[in-house]
Every structure is written in C-alpha cells, then in structure tokens.
Amino acid sequence: MNTLIDTNFNFPGQQSVYKGKVREVYTINGDLLVMIATDRLSAFDVVMPKGIPYKGQILNQIATQMMKATEDLVPNWLIATPDPNVSVGHLCTPFKVEMVIRGYMSGHAAREYKAGKRILCGVPMPDGMKENDKFSEPIITPSTKADNGAHDEDISREEILSKGIVSEADYRILEEYTRKLFQRGTEVATEQGLILVDTKYEFGKTKDGKIVLIDEIHTPDSSRYFYADGYAERQQKGEAQKQLSKEFVRQWLISNGFQGKEGQQIPDMTDAYINSVSDRYVELFENITGTTFDKADVSNIPNRIKENVLRYLNN
Predict the structure, then answer these.
(1) b vs e for 131-163, b when ≥16 Cβ sit within 10 Å of the residue's Cβ?
(2) Which of 215, 211, 238, 229 has its CA nearest to residue 287?
C-alpha cells in the first residue's frame, strides 16, 4: 500500500519541523507554514501502526473546502494548497486548547454520561437524555492541546482562564468563532442530508495579533456526522445512528479491547480492514462535500509533494 507515514523534507528557508499525530508542519522563513496531512490514523490519542490510503488527501481537501466556505465568518490561516496533501498558510502561535462543540449527546460525552457524569468541562448535561439525543443548544467542552504523544484532557472555561492558558478577551473570541463555525457547518451539512453532531476547532494568533482558524475543519477526523434521513426514527427505536466519522474506527478498537489505556495492545489491522477504512474515508469525503473524490497519484507521494511545494515556494 502506498501511504504517507512520515516526511523528511528540507525546503528552502526551512527553520523547524513539528510532527503531530497526523500532520507535519514545516516553518519557512519565519512567516509561512507548510502543513502536510499524512495517512497516519490516530484514535484515542494513539497513532496506529499502519497508514490509511488517501486519508491525508481526504482530510486536507475537506479542510480546504470548509475553510473557503467559512472565511466570510472567521479569518483563517490558509494561503494555498499546492498539493493534494499540503496546505500553506500564515505562521501562527497556536492556542493551547481545542474548542470542542457538541450539538448532540454522542461519543466522549455519551461515554461520560453513561458513567454517571452530569457535568462535562464545567457544563451541565440534563438528566434523562439518551445517547445521540440533541442538546437544547450546542455546548462548548474544551480540551487541552496535548504535546505529541500525550492525551488531550477535558478542561473547563473557568480553569482555562484561572490558569492563564488563554486570556478572557481572547477566549470570548474563541467561543464566538466556535459557535459561528458550528452554525455554518450545520447549514452545510444539512444541504448534504447530514447532521453535524460535534466537532473541534483550533485557533492561533498571527504575528500581528490576529486570531485565526488553523489546522482542520469539519473533517471526519475532527467531526462527527449523522445521516439526517432516519435519525428521528432510529432515536425513537433506540437504534444506533448511521454516522460518518472516525467513530467506526474507535468502535472497532473498543470491540477488540483497545481504548488507548496503559497495557492495552493495538489489535492487528489487516490489509482488508485498512482498505475498508480507506473506502469509508472516501465515502465520508463524497458525502460531506457532495463531490466525487479524485484519487491523487500515489506512486511516489514524497516526491510528488516535494516537487509541488518547491514549485510553489520558488514562485
């Protein structure tokens, strides 16, 4: 399988490289970031040993489309996409929090709720809810932005402010931008017959102090979608929702005894399973964007990326 697991480029003007769970970010000349979406798969904050074909391209192209669809509401870091797996944007200092917003009781929130918790990140959750029920209004449940390899952790608004992680003035902007983006994402999803269930946004500050959206937006790695058709009937019957997200990977891992906890072994991911995950990501792309996925040439992904990025930087 031709997948992009790791990169080792040396671009003109390159100053540093940051390697996250999925993306690798090259700083150029103190003002540009070259962000490369790899085919690595992360679940429960653990990177799986094998890559997923076309996953990086899918994430990068969805994020690019969604950035363009929201730039009238919230400024973002993006300048160009010179390669299917690559975005180039303004150098930013990231905020050390991820802004998670939830419209429905799903995923992590549902797992916490089932464990008896009724407060998540300082936000109360009403009694009597079932998994995948809609909240009366979306709730913001931030998490810390962990360093490479560490687990992100829930944190409340009050803790963020009291610890000085984000100033109150900046945090108000993050909350405002988060709600605006979620509303627009909900509208875009509705047009595609989908429900945007929950998502996360990351923000940074440019060198001139402007707060902008960075990283990814409304991708299957950062968001959860349900099919709108049949949602109400499935809820009424207590059936699982038909969804588009990385949750199907998490559920497969859980069923095979892995949740990223100490001492647990990552189950073997066969080639057949990996190809099925790739097919699901293609399905996600086409349903979220309403366009056909055009597979890039993967005969030599690093060389393709290098040529495209150098052509962009030289121009």
Answers:
(1) bbebbeebbbbbbbbeeeeeebebbebeebeee
(2) 229
Cα 29 from Cα 86, distance rounded (Å): 18
Q: Is the pLDDT of residue 145 over 90?
A: no
How many residues make up the chain in this entry? 315
Q: Provide the 10 A C-beta neighbour count for residue 264.
A: 14
pLDDT in tens, 260-287: 888 999 999 999 999 998 998 898 899 9
The residues, ordered by sequence, that sit 6+ positions from 6 with a Cβ below 8 Å of its Cβ are 24, 38
Q: What is the pLDDT of residues 11-26, one digit of tens each?
A: 999 999 999 889 999 9
* Nearest C-alpha neighbor of 199 from the set 101, 110, 122, 295: 101
d(CA 70, CA 74): 6
Q: Is the pLDDT of residue 35 over 90?
A: yes
**Higher-pLDDT residue of 151, 30:** 30
Angstrom distance (rounded) from CA 258 to CA 246: 15
Phi, psi of 309 (to 5 degrees): -70, -45
Q: At what angle do helices 271-289 and 55-70 cross, to 10 degrees?
A: 20
Tokens representing 211 are 């707060």
Q: How far apart (Å, rounded) are the C-alpha atoms in residues 11 and 86?
A: 13
CB 66 within 8 A of CB 218: yes
Three-class secondary structure assignment of 280-291: HHHHHHHHHHCC
pLDDT at position 248, please? Answer: 81
